User: Which sequence fits this backbone?
């Protein structure tokens, strides 16, 4: 098997053909999740390690649930990357974990590239659950699935206008979701002050949310990554919210058939001052529930044998 | 600090059949060496019972001088020792290295620099000239005892590893050093622009989501130091230039007649930031690998003399440090044993010009031109390198003398390799292998 087949580390590495297959597989998984007993033995006997070296509750829970619904055993290794680095190299950590004969390692790390480094040091399939500011492919897959399902477009997002708003430069979600949306034909625009945009990424940029908010098919609000900001990219005191936050006034300008998305957790009062649960356009709870299905699809694609229908 | 032949058994040697390359050009010539000095140079010498180095088809040059070597001792002997690093230097054709001061403790006192120099002499592979730091503890505030350090032989002062950030401190350092026969060297990096930086801020960095090290952070300090030289009338040497605009700024400064010199590393003329795509921390270095346009500008600077010298920035790190996540792994690459091969493969220039950039030009900047980079004339110290100019080879990290293996040059073809090195009249490298006393 090629490296790209063995791992899910970035959208570009996985490639369009396999992305479309994973989105189709997600549909099957979602169907399983609707059953009274949402569990199949497709990965029975397989061992999945959740190696989360950066704080995460939601993504870890989502992967853990996904693995268990497919019958896999899971082990967890959590810690903060920085405390490990004091005496122990990343390789030491991985070799310790890999000694347990794992089939897959789901890794989250605060440093970009950790999933590539880990893949050199063990035989397990690697799933990137977020590496630094670089990539978060399962988030991108669930975003694409959510958009495809809610718009009835499936894996063909051609012509859809997607605006991603906020801290683009520090966001792995922005990079991966931009990659998958562009790959499936959408027109992506990054929106924010120039201090939060990246002029070298190959997408349109806009510094005035009000100019485009009434035109977009998908409004994707990013979390303001306060923990990754070093040199104050926006003034303190609420100016960001006034320029780029989703206020009730702005929310009124979103088209009724548009989608409102957010990767969570929301910084209420910063990027949003509206309650999204009151908005019919909101697809935020769909993102969470499809997240489990997407991660089931990824794990099955990496570790499963044969067709899903036979397995279930 | 370095006495010729200090305790070493010197050889009587004749180097025969080679082409001599020095500041006066290239010519056929044999060289007789006795008691650590060149005693006779002629087109053809008779050979008695001396040791013969057959240099037929090879180039015989002055030994190389590295302005920028991290020997890691005192402080990090698991990465490198003065012995292993100076042996790597000899294998690379170097007969002198300037040891960078970012050791632990810092080379900011007479005691520490004398310890380093003594260890270098004891190893005996090449002359080890410790640099001194400009500020105590490289903290950027108080000046080191520059005159005291100069009195025990320190000629180059730098806070390398970081630049002197405070404009007033650097101005004062240049003024103070201007009274003495020493030179300040700057690691040009405005630290507020490179916090947490891993790689060149460019397209590749944007797609990889790694924190960027903008070219501007180097260029601002290059510009500041050039203007401080203009103000103070002092001199400065600019370490490891990596950007096209830096080269341009130095070119303008030299045209204005300012006492500015500069160096570039082999990796900054051969490898681009695209190497980081595989997330291998071996390619993390400070300043970072940059773009092809920068590489070409730095090559042009070396060829037209804007950049005076090739310096390795040899920076060993143990494997387990380079196997940390990219953002935590220390920057730096090995360079001593591959410098010639990389430089030859990267630069289209004459051998005279290339050897000048490796030998007599850095010797002058380091203040060691009385012993290194000397012409082939009777009476000169015998610090000599013999090169196979056309040999194509690839490096084997496991075969390096360095205690570390973090070479980035594993998959590129190198051209030219050092066959023999003579330090102070003693053969320290023969047929590409270090000769143990």
Assistant:
């Amino acid at each position: 098997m090629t490296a790209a087949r063995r791992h899910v580390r970035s959208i570009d590495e996985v490639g369009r053909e396999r992305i479309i297959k994973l989105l189709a597989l997600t549909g099957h998984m979602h169907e399983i999740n609707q059953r009274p007993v949402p569990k199949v033995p497709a990965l029975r006997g397989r061992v999945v390690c959740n190696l989360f070296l950066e704080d995460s509750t939601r993504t870890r829970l989502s992967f853990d649930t996904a693995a268990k619904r497919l019958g896999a055993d899971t082990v967890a290794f959590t810690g903060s990357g920085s405390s490990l680095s004091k005496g122990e190299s990343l390789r030491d950590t991985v070799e310790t974990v890999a000694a347990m004969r794992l089939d897959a390692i789901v890794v989250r790390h605060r440093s970009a590239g950790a999933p590539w480094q880990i893949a050199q040091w063990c035989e397990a399939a690697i799933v990137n659950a977020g590496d630094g500011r670089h990539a978060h492919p399962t988030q991108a897959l669930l975003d694409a699935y959510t958009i495809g399902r809610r718009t009835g477009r499936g894996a063909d997002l051609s012509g859809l206008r997607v605006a991603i708003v906020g801290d683009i430069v520090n966001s792995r979600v922005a990079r991966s979701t931009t990659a998958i949306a562009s790959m499936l034909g959408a027109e992506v625009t990054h929106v924010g002050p120039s201090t939060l945009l990246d002029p070298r990424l190959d997408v349109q940029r806009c510094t005035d949310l009000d100019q485009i908010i009434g035109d977009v098919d998908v409004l994707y609000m990013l979390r303001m990554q306060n923990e990754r900001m070093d040199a104050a990219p926006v003034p303190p005191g609420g100016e960001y919210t006034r320029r780029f936050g989703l206020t009730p006034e702005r929310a009124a300008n979103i088209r009724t058939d548009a989608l409102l998305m957010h990767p969570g957790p929301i910084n209420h009062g910063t990027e949003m001052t509206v309650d999204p649960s009151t908005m019919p356009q909101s697809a935020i709870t769909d993102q969470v529930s499809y997240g489990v299905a997407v991660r089931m699809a990824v794990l099955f694609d990496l570790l499963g044998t044969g067709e899903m229908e036979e397995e279930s | 600090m370095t006495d010729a032949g200090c305790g070493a058994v010197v050889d009587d040697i004749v180097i025969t059949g080679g082409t001599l390359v020095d500041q006066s050009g290239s010519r056929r010539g044999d060289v007789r060496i006795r008691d650590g000095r060149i005693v006779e140079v002629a087109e053809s010498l008779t050979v008695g019972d001396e040791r013969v180095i057959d240099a037929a088809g090879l180039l015989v040059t002055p030994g190389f001088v590295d302005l920028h070597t991290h020997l890691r001792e005192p402080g990090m002997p698991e990465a490198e020792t003065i012995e292993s690093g100076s042996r790597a230097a000899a294998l690379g054709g170097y007969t002198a290295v300037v040891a960078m001061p970012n050791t632990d403790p810092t080379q900011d006192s007479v005691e520490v620099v004398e310890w380093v120099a003594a260890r270098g002499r004891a190893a005996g592979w090449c002359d080890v000239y410790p640099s001194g730091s400009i500020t105590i503890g490289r903290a950027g505030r108080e000046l080191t005892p520059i005159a005291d350090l100069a009195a025990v032989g320190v000629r180059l002062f730098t806070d390398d590893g970081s630049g002197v950030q405070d404009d007033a401190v650097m101005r004062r350092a240049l003024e103070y050093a201007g009274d003495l026969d020493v030179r300040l060297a700057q690691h040009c990096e405005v630290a507020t622009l490179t916090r947490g930086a891993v790689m060149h801020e460019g397209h590749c960095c944007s797609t990889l989501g790694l924190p960027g090290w903008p070219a501007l952070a180097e260029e601002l300090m290059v510009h500041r130091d050039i203007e401080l030289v203009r103000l103070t009338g002092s001199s400065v040497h600019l370490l490891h230039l990596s950007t096209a605009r830096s080269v341009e700024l130095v070119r303008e400064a030299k045209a204005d007649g300012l006492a500015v010199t500069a160096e570039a590393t082999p990796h900054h003329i051969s490898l681009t930031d695209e190497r980081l795509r595989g997330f291998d921390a071996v390619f993390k270095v400070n300043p970072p690998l940059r773009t092809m346009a920068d590489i070409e500008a730095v090559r042009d600077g070396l060829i037209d003399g804007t950049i005076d010298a090739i310096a390795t920035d040899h920076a060993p790190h143990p494997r387990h440090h380079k196997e940390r996540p990219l953002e935590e792994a220390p920057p730096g690459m090995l360079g001593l044993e591959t410098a010639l091969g990389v430089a030859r493969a990267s630069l289209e220039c004459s051998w005279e010009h290339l050897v000048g950039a490796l030998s007599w030009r850095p010797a002058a900047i380091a203040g060691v031109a009385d012993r290194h980079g000397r012409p082939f004339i009777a009476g000169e110290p015998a610090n000599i390198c013999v090169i196979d100019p056309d040999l194509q080879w690839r490096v084997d990290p496991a075969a390096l003398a360095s205690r570390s293996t973090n070479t980035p040059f594993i998959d590129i073809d190198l051209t030219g390799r050092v066959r023999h090195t003579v330090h102070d009249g003693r053969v320290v490298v023969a047929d590409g292998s270090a000769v143990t006393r």
